[in-house]
Design goal:
The longest helix has 15 residues. The protein has a three-stranded parallel beta sheet with strand order 1-2-3, sandwiched between helices. The relative contact order is 0.11. The chain contains nine helices and three strands; from the N terminus they run H-E-H-E-H-E-H-H-H-H-H-H. It is mainly alpha-helical and 203 residues long.
Length: 203
């Protein structure tokens, strides 16, 4: 009801399980998928991985809905290819705008949630399974690109980064886009993941 109330948005399918979400993503060719993490059968993380790994669904964006904005699964969701995440308590108008943002190819990653998420990830006694820190991941970046990626990984917006580095927001966006291209990152969320996999920290 919330989504259909927006004149430019339309719900094309609804799924009750992760497996059904993958099937309907292929059948409906939705632009954006709102994915719950906890679902019966195939969970939302596994479903997201299948959708983002499918070349035929390359243009489909996945927006994760979580019970808490900083959820223990969010980092894995981003690693799985999600374009961002929202708390389930998000206001209807914010949800609508979030869908539009992701549909435009931008990443929905609020600074506050990102900072909390990464702080939690870095202080875990037992890091999650996955690739060990690999500083060589970012070898192809220029010094400025590395600097901007490090600040993105703290949850700063382009405007905040621009103010800190005395650059224009457009220049920051250009450097971020170059970094994404060089690293093969789908979006800003993937940059955050790569930065921390590489052990990158802001100077």
């Amino acid at each position: 009801m919330i989504i259909d109330s927006a004149p430019d948005l339309h719900v094309v399918a609804e799924a009750g399980t992760g497996g059904e979400a993958v099937r309907l993503a292929r059948e409906s060719r939705a632009d954006v998928i709102l994915m719950d993490i906890r679902m019966p059968g195939l969970d939302g993380l596994a479903a997201t991985r299948r959708i983002t790994a499918d070349d035929d669904l390359a243009g489909v964006k996945v927006l994760i809905l979580t019970t808490f904005e900083v959820d223990e699964y969010v980092f894995e969701a981003l690693r799985s290819g999600a374009s961002g995440f929202l708390g389930k308590g998000t206001r209807p108008e914010a949800l609508i705008e979030a869908i539009r943002t992701v549909a435009r190819g931008e990443t929905l990653l609020s600074p506050a949630a990102t900072r909390g998420l990464i702080a939690r990830y870095l202080t875990l006694d037992k890091p999650r399974p996955g690739p060990a820190a690999n500083p060589r991941l970012l070898e192809g970046l220029t010094e400025r690109e590395r600097e901007i990626v490090a600040l993105i990984a703290t949850g700063m917006s382009n405007t905040e980064i621009a103010e800190q580095l005395t650059l224009s927001p457009l220049t920051v966006k250009t450097h971020a886009n170059h970094a994404m291209t060089k690293l093969g990152a789908r979006d800003r969320a993937q940059l955050v993941v790569l930065a921390y996999q590489a052990g990158l920290r802001p100077a």
